[in-house]
Write a structure and sequence with these properties.
mainly beta, globular, single chain, 126 residues, 7-stranded mixed sheet, 4-stranded antiparallel sheet
Length: 126
């Protein structure tokens, strides 16, 4: 059974940085593209970033381009999200997820991801 566990969330002032981690266990981590999503109170879950299994391609939502960086270490079965210049509107619960193999590369649709972590809270104060 695949398990994804996020960590690294917290409270930070606007303009600050956080690095989220997502540790995977069970299954073949290195064979699957991974993504990060976020969900703010009262809003739908939205795509943040994705990375191919080979590290060759990354994808970002327009709202985070230039500020967030997704990466992965297949040897450690871990995917990261470096978040810089955080804004209050980045406040949300952040989830990592494994993309299904048949989905389009860089898919932004939650339904194209089959395993999800429990989420980690990121709060950005103004």
């Amino acid at each position: 059974q695949v398990q994804l566990v996020e960590s690294g969330g917290g409270l930070v002032q606007a303009g600050g940085s956080l690095r989220l981690s997502c540790a995977a266990s069970g299954g073949t981590f290195s064979s699957y593209p991974m993504g990060w999503f976020r969900q703010a109170p009262g809003k739908e879950r939205e795509f943040v970033a994705a990375i191919s299994w080979s590290l060759a391609r990354t994808y970002y939502a327009d709202s985070v381009k230039g500020r967030f960086t997704i990466s992965r270490d297949n040897a450690k079965n871990t995917v990261y999200l470096q978040m810089n210049n955080l804004k209050p509107e980045d406040t949300a619960v952040y989830y990592c997820a494994r993309r299904v193999a048949s989905a389009t590369a860089g898919s932004m649709r939650p339904r194209d991801y089959d395993y999800w972590g429990q989420g980690t809270q990121v709060t950005v104060s103004s």
